[in-house]
Amino acid sequence: MLPPRAESVHWARSFAGGSLIGWGMGDLAQDMALVVSELATNALRHGLVLDPRNLRESGAEPIRMSMIRRGSLVTCAFADPGSAAPVLRHPSPLEPGGMGLHIVESMSLRWGWNPLLPQGKVVWAVLKS
């Protein structure tokens, strides 16, 4: 679970790197760290449901990170309570950010998202060692 704090992105990267090293896939650690950073940041920024009355988490499910290995493929997934689909935006020179999913797309074999019931979604990316 990732608490709604900036240091959660660092924790997610550390977890991913440690998992890959444990699986003997340390060669994938740099690419996975970048993908994890982008997915975790998006989940924290866009996936949390906020209570507009006091701008705190509304008690919805937390963000959860998981990694699955199958042979030389590793899937990293982030589940969050938000219902909005991730959007691959066209970056603007006038707005900072907007490159996260472009980075995920360029670093992974494939990426996508699936809705969760009764609410939420999971956003995932597959990398190959």
TrEMBL record:
CDD domains reported in the protein's UniProt record: HATPase_RsbW-like
SUPFAM superfamilies (alphabetical): ATPase domain of HSP90 chaperone/DNA topoisomerase II/histidine kinase (SSF55874)
InterPro entries: Anti-sigma-factor_SerPK, HATPase_C_sf, HATPase_dom
Pfam family, one: HATPase_c_2
A molecular function GO annotation: ATP binding
Histidine kinase/HSP90-like ATPase domain residues: 4-113
Keywords on record: ATP-binding, Kinase, Nucleotide-binding, Serine/threonine-protein kinase, Transferase
Entry annotated with the keyword Nucleotide-binding: yes
PANTHER family found in the cross-reference section: ANTI-SIGMA-F FACTOR RSBW, ANTI-SIGMA-F FACTOR RSBW-RELATED
This protein's name: ATP-binding protein
Gene source species: Sphaerisporangium flaviroseum
